[in-house]
Amino acid sequence: MKKEQILQWLQAFATEIEQNKDYLTQLDAAIGDADHGMNMSRGFQKATASLASVADKDIGTILKTISMTLISSVGGASGPLYGTFFLRASTVITGKHELTEEDMLEMLQAGLDGVLQRGKAQLGDKTMIDVLSPAVTAFSQAVGEGKSMLEAMQLAVAKAEQSMKDTIPMIAKKGRASYLGERSVGHQDPGATSSYLMLKCLLETLLSSGA
C-alpha cells in the first residue's frame, strides 16, 4: 500500500465520519454522552486539513500528524484513543513510503496495542477493542497464510462488521456506557462502529486502487 493510498484512506475515513456523524451520535445517545459523532467529525476534519503540510513526508510522519491533531482537538475518550492508535501505528513504520502486508499487520497491531494500553479495555467490554482485536487477528491469520493485502483486509473487515454487530447484546464494562449496566444491552457500541468504518475505508481504498 503506497503513501498516496494512505492519504486517500484518511480522507475517506474523515468523509465517512462526516456522513455518519448523526448516526454515531444516535448510537452514543443511547448509552453514552451523545457526542461521539460530533467529536469524531470535528477531529477528523481538522486532522485531514493538516495533511497538506505533510503530504510529501513518509507514512509514519503522516500518521503521527493525524495523531497529534486528534489528541489536541477531540473531546471525550475518542480523541485520546484514536490519537493513540495512529501514534503507535506511526512508530513502527517510520520512514516508509510503501507498506507490505507485514508492515500493515505491524501497523494495525501497534495501534491496537496502544488502544488496549490507553483504554484498559478487554474483549467483551463493549468498546472499539471488540472490533479492532478480532479484525487484526483475522488480518494476521490471512497474512500468515500468504494472502495478499487486499484478501487479508477483506477478511479483516468482514470480521470487523460481524464483531460490531456482536456488541449489541453485550453489557458495557467501560466508559460512560458501563454506568447503565444491563440497560446497555441491545445497543451497538459507537466506538466499535467508528472502528469498523475506519477499517472499511481502508479496504475500499485498496479496492479503488486495484490492489
Give an account of the 3D structure:
- The chain is mainly α and 211 residues long.
- The protein has one domain (3-208): DhaL domain (Serine Threonine Protein Phosphatase 5, Tetratricopeptide repeat).
- It has eight helices and no strands.
- It has helices spanning 3-31, 36-49, 59-73, 78-91, 101-119, 129-144, 149-165, 190-208.
- Helix 6 runs parallel beside helix 8.
- The longest helix has 29 residues, at 3-31.
- The radius of gyration is 16 Å and the shape is globular.
Which secondary structure elements does this structure contain, and how are they paired or packed?
Layout: H1 3-31, H2 36-49, H3 59-73, H4 78-91, H5 101-119, H6 129-144, H7 149-165, H8 190-208
Helix pairs in contact: 1-2, 1-8, 2-3, 3-4, 4-5, 5-6, 6-7, 6-8, 7-8
Q: Quick gist of this model?
A:
It contains 8 helices and no strands. It is mainly α. It is globular, with a radius of gyration of 16 Å.
Distinctive features:
68% helix; mainly alpha; single chain; Serine Threonine Protein Phosphatase 5, Tetratricopeptide repeat; 8 helices; 211 residues
